[in-house]
């Protein structure tokens, strides 16, 4: 098992436990058979991109959340959620800007994302008024 596969496996299990969901509750929420999750969490079966996407969509968590290390997940969850809720093109633009500006301070990134979200929402309201 690769490091990435192991990270996804551990992060998915930790996510479920943080949500205080049993394996059965987790499977029921996603419409999976109960036998699937024990195999995924033990590493017997690998997480597919389709399953990761299904979990991220159902719980409204960006897929990045499951690919990152534990310490990153804990610190950046709120920021990732803000970014994930943006439309894909706006999300790409913001990521590009953050890389170009070499912004690494998490508090600064959080403020930029909050501002961008308000800015994009205000733009949508303005567009509706014009029509």
Largest sheet: none
So, the CATH homologous superfamily of the largest domain? Answer: lambda repressor-like DNA-binding domains
Mean pLDDT, to the nearest integer, reads 78
**Could you estimate the helical fraction of the residues in percent?**
over 70%
Order of helices and strands: HHHHHHHH
In terms of DSSP E residues, the strand content is: under 5%
Q: What is the distance, rounded to the nearest whole angstrom, between the alpha carbons of the first and last residues? A: 54 Å
What is the annotated CATH architecture of the largest domain? Orthogonal Bundle
Radius of gyration: 17 Å
Unreliable stretches (pLDDT < 50, length at least 5) are 127-131
Which structural class matches the secondary elements?
Answer: mainly alpha
Total count of domains: 2
Query: What would the CATH topology of the largest domain be?
Result: 434 Repressor (Amino-terminal Domain)
Number of strands: 0
User: What is the CATH class name of the largest domain?
Assistant: Mainly Alpha
Per the principal axes of the C-alpha atoms, what is the gross shape?
A: elongated
Count helical runs: 8
């Amino acid at each position: 098992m690769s490091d990435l596969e192991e990270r996804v496996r551990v992060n998915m299990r930790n996510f479920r436990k943080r949500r205080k969901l049993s394996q059965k509750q987790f499977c029921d929420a996603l419409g999976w058979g109960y036998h699937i999750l024990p195999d995924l969490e033990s590493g017997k079966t690998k997480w597919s991109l389709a399953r990761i996407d299904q979990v991220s969509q159902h719980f409204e968590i960006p897929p990045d959340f499951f690919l990152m290390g534990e310490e990153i997940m804990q610190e950046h969850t709120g920021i990732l959620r803000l970014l994930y809720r943006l439309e894909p093109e706006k999300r790409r633009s913001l990521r590009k800007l953050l890389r170009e500006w070499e912004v690494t301070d998490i508090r600064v990134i959080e403020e930029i994302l909050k501002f961008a979200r308000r800015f994009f929402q205000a733009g949508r309201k303005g567009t509706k008024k014009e029509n």
